[in-house]
C-alpha cells in the first residue's frame, strides 16, 4: 500500500514552535518504520532537515512580509488547500496529522480499513458543541447526539482526497459568505 502522511508547520513571524513540533512528529514517524512518504508544509527560513531524510519532502511556503493574523488564518485553512501541492491519486491513503502529535507505533496499521475516510471521534464532546458546530446546518443541529470529530488526525483514500478537500473548502467558504 502506498501511503502519504502530511503535516503543516506554519508559524507566525519570529516563531518556530510548529516547525519544532513537526520535526518531532516526523522523527516519530521515521522511527516507527513507516514505509510511506511524509510531506511537511512549512514557512521556515531553513529546512527542517538540512541534509534531508529519505521519503520526507518539505515544501516551504513564503509569508515574508505577512502579519501574524494573516499567516495564522492561512494555516487554519491549509489542510484542504494543500491539495494544490500534491497528487493524492498516487497514493492509496493520504493522512493528515497535526504537528503536535506523535506516533509510538507504525501508523501503517491505521490504514487497514476499507473505508474511504477515517477520523477520530471525541466521545467526550458533542458535534453540536462550540468547537465543532461551525459548519452544521439548522437541521443537523436538531439531530440526536453525535460525538465531536477531531480534524487533527484523519486519513482518506487517495482517489477521494481531492473531492473531499474541495467539499471541505466549499463548506468553509459558504459559512464565511453567510457571516
Describe this protein's structure.
With 179 residues, the protein is α/β, with parallel strands linked by helices. The protein has four helices and six strands, in the order E-H-E-E-H-E-E-H-E-H. The chain has helices spanning 17-31, 68-81, 138-141, 158-178, and strands at residues 3-9, 37-42, 56-60, 93-97, 117-126, 147-157. Strands 3-2-1-4-6-5 form a six-stranded mixed beta sheet, sandwiched between helices. Strand 1 (3-9), helix 1 (17-31) and strand 2 form a beta-alpha-beta unit. The protein is globular, with a radius of gyration of 17 Å.
Protein topology:
Layout: E1 3-9, H1 17-31, E2 37-42, E3 56-60, H2 68-81, E4 93-97, E5 117-126, H3 138-141, E6 147-157, H4 158-178
Parallel strand pairs: 1-2, 1-4, 2-3
Antiparallel strand pairs: 4-6, 5-6
Helix pairs in contact: 2-4
Amino acid at each position: 500500500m502506498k501511503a502519504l502522511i502530511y503535516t503543516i508547520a506554519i508559524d507566525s513571524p519570529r516563531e518556530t514552535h510548529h516547525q519544532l513540533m513537526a520535526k518531532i512528529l516526523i522523527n516519530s514517524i521515521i522511527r516507527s518504520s513507516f514505509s510511506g512518504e511524509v510531506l511537511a508544509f512549512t514557512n521556515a527560513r531553513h529546512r527542517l532537515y538540512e541534509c534531508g531524510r529519505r521519503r520526507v519532502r518539505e515544501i516551504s511556503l513564503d509569508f515574508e512580509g505577512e502579519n501574524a493574523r494573516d499567516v495564522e488564518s492561512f494555516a487554519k485553512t491549509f489542510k484542504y488547500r494543500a491539495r494544490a501541492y500534491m497528487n493524492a491519486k498516487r497514493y492509496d491513503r493520504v493522512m493528515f496529522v497535526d504537528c503536535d502529535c506523535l506516533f509510538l507505533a507504525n501508523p501503517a496499521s491505521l490504514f487497514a480499513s476499507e473505508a474511504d475516510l477515517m477520523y477520530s471521534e471525541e466521545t467526550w464532546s458533542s458535534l453540536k458543541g462550540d468547537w465543532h458546530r461551525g459548519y452544521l446546518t439548522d437541521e443537523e443541529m436538531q439531530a440526536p447526539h453525535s460525538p465531536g470529530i477531531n480534524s487533527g488526525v484523519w486519513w482518506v483514500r487517495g482517489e477521494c482526497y481531492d473531492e473531499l478537500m474541495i467539499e471541505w473548502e466549499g463548506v468553509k467558504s459558504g459559512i464565511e459568505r453567510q457571516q
